[in-house]
Each structure stands twice: as C-alpha cells, then as structure tokens.
C-alpha cells in the first residue's frame, strides 16, 4: 500500500452511487456450537466494609422454535469461601446463588464456568396467532404490565403502539411492525443518559437495554406478552452468504439485553430488537429473565454495608472468556424489497403480514465540471459516526448507588467494548463515508486504542467502485505509534491531510487504515449502521482483489474540512 498519492479534484458521477434500499434479510440454515464459557471477577473490598454479598444466576437449559441452549458442568467457586451460601429461585424462575461474607477479606476472587451447547435453527416458521390476541394466559399477565423502565401505560407509548398496529390482523404482523420501528428509530449509543422506554422514544438513542425496554413497552401495550432477557454475547463472528458476497456479524463480548415474545402457537420466542426477529444467534448465552432490567439484576450483583466514615468503596473487575470447541455455521440470506431501512434479520415466516415499503434515498447531487472551478471552500464542516465512549476503562465499568443507610449496591451494566483489531497482516478493513456537498479534507479522525507494538499508521482515501473500495485517491501524513498513548480507552486519532488536501465532490468514498511494522491497534465500532449503507464496512484478505466481505457494524470516524456555502 503506497504511502502517498497526489491529492486532486475528484468528481464521481452521482449515478454511480448505490441508493439505500430496505434492509430486511430472510435467513435460512443453522448454527451449532459447543462453547466453554468462563466468567472471572475480582472484588477489592477497601477499608470499612462490614458485610459483603454477591449473587449470580445459574444459566438454564432453554428451548424455543429457533434457539436452544443446553448447559453442562456448571461450577461457581469463591476464594476465600463465604461464611454463608444459599441457592433458591425467584418469582421468574431464575435460580440464584447468594454468597455472604460477614467479615470480608481484602480481596475476593470468583470463577464461574460451564459448557453451553447452543443451536440456532432458521427454517420456515408458521404462525397464525390473531391480533389482537383473544385472551391471555394468566401466567403471562405480569409480562403485560408497566414498570419504571417499561412505561407501557404512558399516553405517548399508547398512541404510537396503536398507530403502528392499526388495521393489523395477525400477531406476527404487529410484532414485525413494532420491531421495524424500533430498529429504525433508535440509534445505538453507549452509555445513554437513561435506560427507559420513554427516553429511547423521545431521544432516538440508547443501548441494548433501551432497545429491549422500548420494544417491550410497545408490545405490551397492544396485549403481546414480552419479557426481558439478560445474558452475554460472545465476539465470535459468523457470516451469512448473500448475492454480494458475505455479510459478517459480530457482537462485543459482554453483557447484553434482549427480549422474548409470547406466541400462543409458538411459545416464547427470542428477539434482539437491535437487528433480529424471532431468533438470536448461538453466540448468545441466556442467563436471566424478568419484567425489566431493574428486576433482572441478580447476576453479578454486589451489595455491601460499610462504616459511616469508610474512605473507600469496593471495586470490581470482570473478565469473560469463551472457547468454541466446535462451531458450525451454514446460513444464507436473501435481501428483501421491504422492511426497515436499517438491517433486520428474520427466518422465513409463513403467516399474514404487510410488507413495509421503503423509498430509496436520492443520490448526491451532480456538480457540472464548469461549476467546480468556481467553488470556494470557506465553511467548516465535520461529519461522520462520531458517538462513542471516550477514555473509558472497560475493565472497571460499573457504578455504585445507595440502597439504604451505609448500604450500597453495584449491579452489572451493559457497557461493552466493541472494536476490531485492524492492524492484522492478513486482513484489511475499510469504512465508507458519504458527502452530499463538496468538501476539502483537512483531517480524518478514527476512534482507536493503542495496545503496543511499533510502527507507523496512516489513512488512505479510496475511490468507490460499484459500492466497494477502489483506487487510492489520497493519503494522510504518517503517525508514529509512539505518539499514541497506551492508557485505557478509545479516543480520536486525527490523520492530517492538510499538506495536499483532497477535494471531493458529492458521493461516497472509503477510509482505509494503513500501517507498517507491528502495531497492535483496535478501531471502535458501533452496532448497526448509524450513518452509512448496510454494506459500508468492508474487509478482505490482503492477497485478494475483491472486497467481498461486509460487516454488520460501522467504525467510528469523523471527517473534518471545509465546504462551500
């Protein structure tokens, strides 16, 4: 990859830009894995802690029409051993182990491990449940009620739920309309200011908890029982073959929230309102269920009582490891002409529903050659996928709240490190960006974390060729890896183009991170496609010509420069 190319005026015809389509994919196939899962925690108690209590939820066997989980060899150990240890079930059927230290030591180590045989089956589902549901099983009524985080009875929720399901005759149609709205309306951010359904509705932002709470609020309002599920996602990617190559899906490794919806003719069926209907992949470990995430808090919950004048509070570090002893993925997807504009995956469903039509986005304007010569770049511009948690130490992400006089608790949170190792010597990555105005590039920033090594980094701007990275157009100045800090967290690394600033006409282009030496650098990504098209994050083997691989996420980047009035 060349270090420098000459910066020049670029004019790609707008007719060559692929307009956005509906992004509903129907999948068929299956996935099966044998996973060895391990959770490790270290609690440092600090001075003045008189009593400390830890609780964990035992993962259970689970079966649905699309996802199955079988747990074997569960083991939970504490060092040193607690003075008390109990095991029981709560009102939702979760099995909880509680350990108590009445004279806490300076440090406690926890190790939880088990084997999970997970399978996802994506064959044609058949459902004929009517809407509204004629009656509700009394056992399901709790999952129709409002909570502090799932404001089912709020007038704004009620109005929207009724509008989304107007003239609907089947339960599946009602569900897919609501989930399609959530997928398109909520943009993934972490951490959000609040986690409740109304915040997600009003702000259009949230993390996995917000997606789950908003979906549950809307579904419960129209009489569809919905429960919140907590567990873990694993960062083992899987690929779906489609007509343009492969679409690779990857989650961050950490705690996650999703939902299960009750169908009278199917039972409880999992959904991840961030991007799946009627299934979750076998990269999910299911742990705990409840009415909302205030209730599903027992797994990893730390509580303690301390002296009034205690100078320190406990700290907790959590590590998750998963080894795939076997892994089989055989899944193919077909892109449909209906559905939300953001990606939504579903098995094929045999049942009555309305196909939601989406209009394509108009292409960027074409600027005639004679007008380009008269352009004056005087207006500052900044754009991109610019929201990510800066300078967060993901090893210590939890917050503490009071639960009584000198009593406190530290519950799990869902701040997950979502990033890709992008300085591997076998795989190249590229991120699309779209400009609808002429722009003179000054800097391009990437959300990076330096883990060490040595070498230099730079950014190439590549031409778009039929929706894939093409010829190089311009390169930034080099950055020596020694200039980047090694402290925890991700932050902007700005690559300078001001020596020979390229001028880009409206269109789409690609950012590719170049490197020499042996740097170990991660690039932070956001779930979904907040800014660009569905296949706008690409990868390929260094020995291949075709960028046939597409990722389901979007790298965080910002473009800084000047544009015209």
Helix content: under 10%
Structural class: mainly beta
Second rung of CATH, namely the architecture of the largest domain: Roll
State the low-pLDDT regions, or none. Answer: 1-21
Quaternary structure type: single chain
User: Residue-averaged pLDDT, rounded?
Assistant: 91
CATH class of the largest domain: Alpha Beta
How far apart, in Å, are the first and last alpha carbons? 36 Å
Looking at the structure, the CATH topology of the largest domain is: C8orf32 fold
What radius of gyration results from the CA coordinates?
25 Å
User: How many helices in DSSP terms?
Assistant: 5
Amount of beta strand:
over 45%
How many structurally independent domains? 2
Protein architecture, described:
The protein is mainly β and 565 residues long. It has two domains: 9-20 and 365-563, Jelly Rolls, CATH 2.60.120; 23-359, C8orf32 fold (Roll). Helix content is 9%, strand content 47%. Strands 1, 22, 25, 27, 31, 32, 34, 37 and 38 form a nine-stranded mixed beta sheet that branches. Strands 13, 14, 26, 28, 29, 30, 33, 35 and 36 form a nine-stranded mixed beta sheet that branches. The chain is globular, with a radius of gyration of 25 Å. 43% of the residues are buried.
Summarize the structure.
With 565 residues, the chain is mainly beta. Helices cover 9% and strands 47% of the residues.
From the structure above, extract its key features.
single chain, 5 helices, C8orf32 fold, 2 domains, mainly beta, 565 residues
Topology of this protein?
Elements: E1 9-10, E2 24-44, E3 49-58, E4 62-63, E5 67-79, E6 84-89, E7 95-101, E8 107-122, E9 125-126, H1 155-164, H2 171-185, E10 187-188, H3 197-203, E11 205-206, H4 208-221, E12 226-233, E13 238-242, E14 245-249, E15 254-263, E16 267-271, E17 284-290, E18 301-306, E19 315-335, E20 344-347, E21 349-350, H5 369-372, E22 379-385, E23 401-404, E24 407-410, E25 419-421, E26 427-435, E27 439-452, E28 455-465, E29 468-475, E30 479-480, E31 491-496, E32 503-504, E33 507-517, E34 520-527, E35 537-541, E36 549-551, E37 553-555, E38 557-563
Parallel strand pairs: 1-32, 2-20, 9-21, 10-11, 14-36
Antiparallel strand pairs: 2-8, 2-19, 3-7, 3-18, 4-5, 5-8, 6-7, 12-15, 12-17, 13-14, 15-16, 18-24, 22-38, 23-24, 25-34, 26-33, 26-35, 27-31, 27-32, 27-34, 27-38, 28-29, 28-30, 28-33, 34-37, 35-36
């Amino acid at each position: 990859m060349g270090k420098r190319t000459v910066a020049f005026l670029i004019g790609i015809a707008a007719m060559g830009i692929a307009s956005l389509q509906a992004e509903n994919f129907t999948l068929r196939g299956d996935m099966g894995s044998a996973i060895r899962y391990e959770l490790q925690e270290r609690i440092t108690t600090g001075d003045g802690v008189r009593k400390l209590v830890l609780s964990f939820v035992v993962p259970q066997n689970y079966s649905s029409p699309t996802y199955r989980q079988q747990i074997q060899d569960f083991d939970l150990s504490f060092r040193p051993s607690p003075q008390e240890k109990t095991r029981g079930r709560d009102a939702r059927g979760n099995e909880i182990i509680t350990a108590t230290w009445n004279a806490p030591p300076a440090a406690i180590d926890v190790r939880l491990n088990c084997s999970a045989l997970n399978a996802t089956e994506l064959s044609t589902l058949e459902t004929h449940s009517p809407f509204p549901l004629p009656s509700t099983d009394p056992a399901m009524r709790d999952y129709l009620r409002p909570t502090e985080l799932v404001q089912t009875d709020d007038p704004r929720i009620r109005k929207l739920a009724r509008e989304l399901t107007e003239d609907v005759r089947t339960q599946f149609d009602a569900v897919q309309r609501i989930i399609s709205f959530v997928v398109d309306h909520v943009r993934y951010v972490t951490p959000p200011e609040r986690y409740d359904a109304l915040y997600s509705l009003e702000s259009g932002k949230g993390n996995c908890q917000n997606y789950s709470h908003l979906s549950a609020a809307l579904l419960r309002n129209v009489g569809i029982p919905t429960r919140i599920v907590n567990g873990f996602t694993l960062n083992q990617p899987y690929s779906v073959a489609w007509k343009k190559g492969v679409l690779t899906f990857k989650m961050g490794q950490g705690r996650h929230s999703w939902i299960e919806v009750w169908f009278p003719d199917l039972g409880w069926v999992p959904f991840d309102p961030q991007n799946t209907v009627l299934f979750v992949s076998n990269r999910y470990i299911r742990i705990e269920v409840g009415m909302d995430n205030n209730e599903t808090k027992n797994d990893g919950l730390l509580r303690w009582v301390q002296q009034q004048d205690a100078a320190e509070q406990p700290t907790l570090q959590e590590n998750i490891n998963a080894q795939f002893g076997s892994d089989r993925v055989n899944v193919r997807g077909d892109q449909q002409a209906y559905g939300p504009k953001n990606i939504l995956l579903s098995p094929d469903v045999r049942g009555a529903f309305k196909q939601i039509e989406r209009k394509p986005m108009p292409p960027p304007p074409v600027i005639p050659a004679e007008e380009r010569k008269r352009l004056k770049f005087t207006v500052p511009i900044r754009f991109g996928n610019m929201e990510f948690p800066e300078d967060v130490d993901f090893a210590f992400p939890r917050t503490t709240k009071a639960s009584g006089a000198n009593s406190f608790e530290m519950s799990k949170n869902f701040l997950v490190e979502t990033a890709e190792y992008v300085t591997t010597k076998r795989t190249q990555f590229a991120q699309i960006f779209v400009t609808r105005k002429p722009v003179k590039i000054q800097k391009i920033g990437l959300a990076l974390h330096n883990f060490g090594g040595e070498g230099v980094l730079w950014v190439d701007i590549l031409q778009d060729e039929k929706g894939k990275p093409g010829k190089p157009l311009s390169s930034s100045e080099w950055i020596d890896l020694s200039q980047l800090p090694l402290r925890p967290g991700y932050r902007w690394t700005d690559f300078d183009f001001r020596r020979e600033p390229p001028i880009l006409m409206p269109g789409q282009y690609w950012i590719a991170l170049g490197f020499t030496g042996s740097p170990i650098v991660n690039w932070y990504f956001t779930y979904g496609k907040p800014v660009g098209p569905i296949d706008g994050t690409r990868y390929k083997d260094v020995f291949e010509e075709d960028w046939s691989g597409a990722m389901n996420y979007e790298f965080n980047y910002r473009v800084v420069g000047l544009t015209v009035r």
